[in-house]
């Protein structure tokens, strides 16, 4: 199977005619027909219903047309990026983050880098994923680095060989509706959480924050901790008093006039509510973009 075959197939699928596709590509109808027959034989699947005046796609043909179009677009995009890398000094950096909270910190850093390091431009490729996913991707080299929320027992980092830079420290706090009965308390105790629905954000199916949060609470109680997939959903449920949620305090919070924040008491015998946002990366990743960005972060943290 060749790219030319796929391009011809897409032309036929869009135009509904071997002859029109042939005219568009300046080849004979016989050549188009032969290419499509060979393609069907290679795949072992019928792609077309051949009528006297019209060519229609089978269900398999419709699916294959969608995937072929995606494949060619990805190929063209990759070729364009290869030309960018070859033809100029622009560096590339694949960087991930865990949630919109870290995302806002990341954005502020990237904008500042673009402003102060114009002589060392970087094309940032940014991805949002769960912390487990980010650690795995950086470890395997799919990402160059990532911003993660280091909270709870820290076991997720102890078992890796990744290097890290501490970017910002803070404390996890509980957000709740202004009308919630617990608002009257300046500090929330673990027993106050019994019977409450407690939310945490993760755009992927992830138990990291749930496990980290539960590690900070006494283990002789059962707590109802649930994941939500969007910040908007979490904010809405909290504002309506249907749940409470935990947030990283020192990061830019999404303002909501109906939500207030309270500290959660932590016993000295269990993990505290302190967290650190870290940039994680592999020590053997020597690409220039990562070196430039690490030096920039170290300088602004002084």
From TrEMBL:
Q: Which UniProt keywords apply?
A: DNA-binding, Transcription, Transcription regulation
HTH lysR-type domain span: 1-58
InterPro entries this protein is in?
LysR_HTH_N, LysR_subst-bd, WH-like_DNA-bd_sf, WH_DNA-bd_sf
- Return the CDD domains for the record: PBP2_LTTR_substrate
Q: Give an example GO cellular component term for this record.
A: protein-DNA complex
Which segments cross the bilayer?
none
Q: Which domain of life is it from?
A: Bacteria
Q: Name one GO molecular function term.
A: DNA binding
DNA-binding among keywords: yes
What PANTHER family is this protein classified in?
Answer: HTH-TYPE TRANSCRIPTIONAL REGULATOR CYNR, TRANSCRIPTIONAL DUAL REGULATOR HCAR-RELATED
- UniProt similarity note: Belongs to the LysR transcriptional regulatory family.
Its protein name is LysR family transcriptional regulator
């Amino acid at each position: 199977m060749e790219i030319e075959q796929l391009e011809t197939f897409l032309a036929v699928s869009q135009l509904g005619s071997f002859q029109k596709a042939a005219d568009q590509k300046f080849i004979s109808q016989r050549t188009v027909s032969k290419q499509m027959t060979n393609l069907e034989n290679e795949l072992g699947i019928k792609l077309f219903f051949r009528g006297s005046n019209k060519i229609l796609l089978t269900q398999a043909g419709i699916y294959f047309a969608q995937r072929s179009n995606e494949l060619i677009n990805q190929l063209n995009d990759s070729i364009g990026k290869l030309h960018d890398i070859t033809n100029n000094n622009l560096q590339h950096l694949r960087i991930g983050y865990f949630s919109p909270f870290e995302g806002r910190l990341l954005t502020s850093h990237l904008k500042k880098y673009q402003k102060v390091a114009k002589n060392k431009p970087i094309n940032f490729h940014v991805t949002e994923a769960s912390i487990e996913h980010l650690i795995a991707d950086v470890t395997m080299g799919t990402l160059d680095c990532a911003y993660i929320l280091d909270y709870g027992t820290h076991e997720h980092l102890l078992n890796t060989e990744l290097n890290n830079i501490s970017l910002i420290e803070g404390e996890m706090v509980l957000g709740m509706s202004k009308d919630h009965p617990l608002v009257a308390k300046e500090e929330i105790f673990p027993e106050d959480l019994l019977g409450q629905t407690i939310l945490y954000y993760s755009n992927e199916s992830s138990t990291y924050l749930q496990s980290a949060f539960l590690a900070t609470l006494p283990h002789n109680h059962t707590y109802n901790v649930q994941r939500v997939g969007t910040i908007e959903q979490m904010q809405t449920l909290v504002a309506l008093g249907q749940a409470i949620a935990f947030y990283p305090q020192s990061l830019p919070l999404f303002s909501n006039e109906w939500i207030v924040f309270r500290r959660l008491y932590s016993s000295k015998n269990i993990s505290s509510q302190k967290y650190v946002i870290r940039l994680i990366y592999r020590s053997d990743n020597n690409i220039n973009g990562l070196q430039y960005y690490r030096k920039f972060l170290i300088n602004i943290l002084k």
